[in-house]
Every structure is written in C-alpha cells, then in structure tokens.
Design goal:
It catalyses: (6R)-5,10-methenyltetrahydrofolate + H2O = (6R)-10-formyltetrahydrofolate + H(+); (6R)-5,10-methylene-5,6,7,8-tetrahydrofolate + NADP(+) = (6R)-5,10-methenyltetrahydrofolate + NADPH. This protein is an alpha/beta fold and 279 residues long. It folds into two domains: 25-112, Leucine Dehydrogenase, chain A, domain 1 (Rossmann fold); 134-256, 3-Layer(aba) Sandwich (Rossmann fold). It has ten helices and ten strands. The protein binds the ligand Nc1nc2c(c(=O)[nH]1)N[C@@H](CN(C=O)c1ccc(C(=O)N[C@@H](CCC(=O)O)C(=O)O)cc1)CN2.
Length: 279
C-alpha cells in the first residue's frame, strides 16, 4: 500500500480551511528566510501557497546570506512583539555563520510553530501538550490516518537529527512503540532495520535502505529529500522495497506535503492558543 501524503495533506488543508472560517480565526504566519538556497526558497514558497489556500495570512522576511546572528535576533524580537503575528518560522538550514540554536531559542515559545524552541522540545520529551515539529507530526498523522498499529510494535528510526530523528522517535515512544534510533556510527545497520515493524529513514542518503534491510510487511516512512542527477529521491530504494513493504511513503508525495499541512495546523493552533493553555 502506498501512503498518499499528498492526498491526505490536501484533505487536511480543506478541513483546516473550514475550521478557520467556522472559528472566525485570522491566523498570521511569518517566515524568515536567509540566503539564496533554491530548495529553501521553494519550501518557503510552498508554505505561503498553503497559507493562501487555507486562509492564513502570511508575511515573508528575506535576508541576505551575510546576515549576522544579532540581526536575526533583532528581527525575531520584532516578530515576537508584533501582536498581529501568531506563528514564526525560520527556514532551515541557516548559513553556518548564524547561531541557529540562539535564533530558535529567541522565538517566543507560543509563536514557535516549528516546535524547535527548547521549551517545546522539553514538552515533547515529557509528553506535555505543545507544538510538535512538523515532519514528525505529519508522519504520526499519516500512520494514524492509515490505521497503522504502533503500540507494542518495533519502530526503527535511521537518523538522529534534532528536527526529525529524535522527535519522531519520541512521538513513536509516546504512542507505545519500542523504539531504536540508528545513526552514522551504528554497527550492522541491516540487522536492526530488519527487526522493524515501522521503519523511518531520515538519514539524508539516497538509496540507503535496500530490500535486504527490511522484513516483509514493514511500514516504511521515507523522510529523505535527496537530489540525484537533478531528480528528487528518498532514502529508500523504492522500486525494490515497495514490493515487500506492507505500506510505504513515496518521494515526492509522501512525508513532504504532510510537513506543510502540519505547519498550517500548528499555526492555527498557535492563533487559538496564544495567551491560552500553552503559556
Ligand atoms: N524551519 C524548518 N525548516 C525545514 C523543515 C521544517 O520542518 N522546518 N523541513 C525541511 C524542508 N521542508 C520544509 O521546510 C519541506 C521539505 C519538502 C516538502 C515537500 O512537500 N516536498 C515535495 C517535493 C517538492 C519538490 O518538488 O522538490 C514532496 O515531498 O512531495 C515540504 C517541506 C527542511 N527545512
């Protein structure tokens, strides 16, 4: 079975549009984009397009590559103080010269629609309510909507990044999976991935997950967005893994669109909750 993230995201955006109208909400998202990376520009454009589609106002602040950490902190401070702004998103990665952690930590936690602020990360670890990072949230929505059993199942996450690997491992753990995180220093990766009922690959390496590394019936979630010869492809060798998998996300059309839908949901929740239960 192909897990159709594109279709599911479109349906969730339609529902969100109705929620916004019925709730009389006027959410506003601010994005901050630094530099000229074409992929980052494309993702930010996609986010603004989704905002327009569901009825979220959006503003984009584009800054040059040589922007300093202090300038970023000033801009974040202005957005924090702007009562018209419900959500702030800093598109990642930032140029290496900028202190990413300082910037993310400067966003007011109640406007942190990426869920990357240390306070919101702490909420994730403890299981308290709060905004969840968009890609992991989107993966959980996909699993739930397709009724993939999680409790008691063995989940293996390949990749330990702060924005995807670690948070998805925690969300799967909260859903009562038995979770293993693998990374670049993991020895004998196939012996671990073969045990997975749910395999999430967020390694960022094209084709790293091959047929001999999965057990029949596994649910495979491919977070990879790798460019190979100008073509977008995931971490999973799709054509050889798909026939043995019970369910699998394609790239494109799987996790990516769910990331954007989750951002829209976090922005609407932020508009609802500001001065509400999170703070
Ligand atoms: N502040 C953040 N930065 C980044 C995040 C994030 O969640 N927050 N995630 C990624 C990039 N990303 C969103 O920003 C993202 C990646 C991919 C897609 C997507 O829908 N991709 C399409 C294919 C698009 C194409 O043609 O290339 C798909 O998979 O179908 C959306 C968002 C890093 N930065």
């Amino acid at each position: 079975m192909i897990l159709d993230g594109k279709g599911l995201a479109a349906r969730r955006l339609e529902l969100l549009k109705e929620d916004i109208i019925e709730g009389g909400l006027t959410p506003t998202l601010a994005t901050v984009l630094v530099g000229d990376d074409p992929a980052s520009h494309m993702y930010v454009r996609m986010k603004h397009r989704a905002c327009e589609q569901v009825g979220i106002s959006s503003v984009n602040i584009s800054l040059p590559e040589d922007t300093t950490t202090n300038t970023m902190l000033d801009r974040i401070h202005q957005l924090n103080e702007d009562s018209d702004i419900d959500g702030i998103l800093v598109q990642l990665p930032l140029p290496a010269s900028i202190d990413t952690q300082a910037v993310l930590s400067a966003i007011r936690p109640e406007k942190d629609v990426d869920g990357f602020h240390p306070l919101n990360m702490g909420r994730l670890v403890t299981g308290l309510e709060g905004p969840r990072p968009c890609t992991p949230k989107g993966i959980m929505t996909l699993l739930q909507e397709y009724h993939i059993p999680i409790a008691g199942k063995r989940a293996v996450v390949v990749g330990r990044s702060v924005d995807v690997g670690r948070p998805i491992a925690l969300l799967l753990l909260h859903a009562h999976a038995t979770v293993t995180i693998c990374h670049s220093k993991t020895e004998d990766l196939p012996s671990i991935t073969k045990q997975a009922d749910i395999l999430v690959s967020a390694a960022g390496k094209a084709g790293i997950i091959t047929r001999d590394m999965v057990k029949p019936g596994v649910t495979v979630i491919d977070v990879g967005t790798n460019q190979v010869n100008g073509k977008l492809c995931g971490d999973v060798a799709f054509s050889e893994v798909e026939p043995v998998a019970g369910a699998i996300t394609p790239v494109p059309g799987g996790v990516g669109p769910m990331t954007i839908a989750s951002l829209m949901e976090n922005t609407v929740n932020s508009a609802r909750n500001r001065c509400g239960p999170f703070m």
